[in-house]
Write a structure and sequence with these properties.
Structural class: mainly beta
Distance between the termini: 32 Å
Number of strands: 21
Number of helices: 2
CATH architecture: Distorted Sandwich
Radius of gyration: 19 Å
Order of helices and strands: EHEEEEEEEEEEEEEEEEEEEEH
Largest sheet: 9 strands, mixed
Length: about 300
C-alpha cells in the first residue's frame, strides 16, 4: 500500500520560501519509486524483487543514486560481486536458536515484503519516505523473523551538497534471533554503498586526512569521505554518534562496496522487546569535502 501525503504550507513565510524552489516529489513505477527534485532524479527505491540476475533476487535498496551533475554513482549486480546493490543494509549471519536460516548479504534463502509506503513533504521542504519491510527466510516463508521500519529524509540540495538521512528501526519477531557480519576477520555487514570508484578516488575521514583502503576495517571516526575531484563528485557517509558500538569502515579502492561494519564478526542478539535503532547520512557533494559543514551535519544526529 502506498500513501502519498503532501503537507500544506499554511504560513505565508513558508509559501514564499518555497515559491522559487524545486519541490521534492515521488513518481511511482511498477517496481518502485523515483524521488526527484523538480526534474532532477535523486534516487530510485527498489520495492519489488529485482531478479535480473538469477540467484541474486533482492529488493529494499536504492539504485540508481545520482550525483549533483545528474550522473549515476551507484552500481547494481556488478560482475565482481553480483550480490551488491546500490545503497543497502544487510548481514551475513542470521541465526535463530543457534541455527543459520538465511544470508541477506548474499541474498541466499532470503526475501523481503515491503508495505505501508508513505511519502510527504514537510514544512521545511524535505521529502519524507517511510515504509515497513518484513524479513523472511525461504525455509519458513510465511513467518517473518524481523520487522524493519525505515524513514528516509531527503533534504533540498544546496549549492555544494545534498543530504539524505536514513533512520532504521529493526525489531526481532523471533526469540533467540542473532545477526552478525561475515564470520571472518573483516566482519563486514550493515550499512553499505556500492559506488563507482577508480584509481583516482580519494579517501579521508574524521580522524585520518588520507586513507589507503586495506583489507580489514579501519576505526577512523564517525564519517568517511569518498571523492573524485576530477569528476567533481563525492560521497560522504556518516554513522550517527547515537548508533551502538564504534563505527569501523571497510573501504575499497575499486571492485567492491564501502561498508560501515557493525556489529562485526560476532553475531549479537536482537530482542523482541528491544528494537535496534540505527541512523546514517549520505552526503552527495562536488568532490571537495573540505567545504562540507561536518560539525553541523554531525550535530543533526544528536
Amino acid at each position: 500500500m502506498v500513501r502519498l501525503v503532501f503537507l500544506v504550507m499554511a504560513l505565508v513565510g513558508c509559501s514564499a520560501l518555497r515559491a522559487n524552489a524545486q519541490l521534492i516529489h515521488l513518481k511511482k513505477e511498477a517496481d518502485g519509486f523515483w524521488i526527484l527534485e523538480d526534474q532532477d532524479k535523486i534516487f530510485f527505491f527498489q520495492k519489488t524483487m529485482n531478479d535480473s540476475v538469477p540467484g541474486y533476487a533482492r529488493n529494499n535498496y536504492f539504485h540508481p543514486v545520482y550525483d549533483l551533475n545528474g550522473q549515476i554513482i551507484t552500481e547494481d549486480f556488478p560482475a565482481d560481486h553480483p550480490h551488491q546493490r546500490g545503497l543497502y543494509w544487510a548481514w551475513h549471519q542470521v541465526l535463530v536458536d543457534g541455527q543459520a536460516i538465511c544470508d541477506p548479504w548474499d541474498t541466499k534463502d532470503f526475501f523481503q515484503n515491503i508495505s505501508d509506503v508513505e511519502f510527504y513533504v514537510n514544512e521545511n521542504g524535505r521529502g519524507i519516505l517511510r515504509y515497513t519491510s518484513f524479513w523472511h527466510t525461504t525455509k519458513k516463508p510465511d513467518d517473518p523473523f524481523l520487522m524493519e521500519k525505515t524513514e528516509v529524509i531527503i533534504h533540498p540540495r544546496t549549492a555544494n551538497y545534498r543530504q539524505i538521512d536514513f533512520k532504521l528501526n529493526l525489531r526481532a519477531l523471533e526469540h533467540k534471533l542473532f545477526l552478525g557480519g561475515s564470520n571472518d576477520e573483516k566482519g563486514y555487514g550493515g550499512f553499505t554503498m556500492r559506488m563507482q570508484t577508480n584509481e583516482h578516488t580519494l579517501f579521508s575521514a574524521e580522524l585520518e586526512k588520507n586513507i589507503t583502503p586495506q583489507n580489514l576495517s579501519v576505526p577512523v571516526g564517525q564519517y568517511v569521505h569518498i571523492s573524485n575531484p576530477e569528476l567533481k563528485r563525492g560521497v560522504s557517509l556518516i554513522s550517527s554518534p547515537e548508533n551502538p558500538g564504534e563505527p569501523r569502515w571497510i573501504l575499497r579502492q575499486t571492485g567492491s562496496a564501502q561498508n560501515c561494519a557493525w556489529p562485526g564478526r560476532h553475531a549479537i542478539p536482537w530482542k523482541v522487546d528491544e528494537p535496534v535503532q540505527l541512523k546514517y547520512s549520505v552526503i552527495i557533494h562536488k568532490g571537495k569535502p573540505k567545504h562540507l559543514p561536518m560539525k553541523h551535519l554531525l550535530k543533526n544526529h544528536k
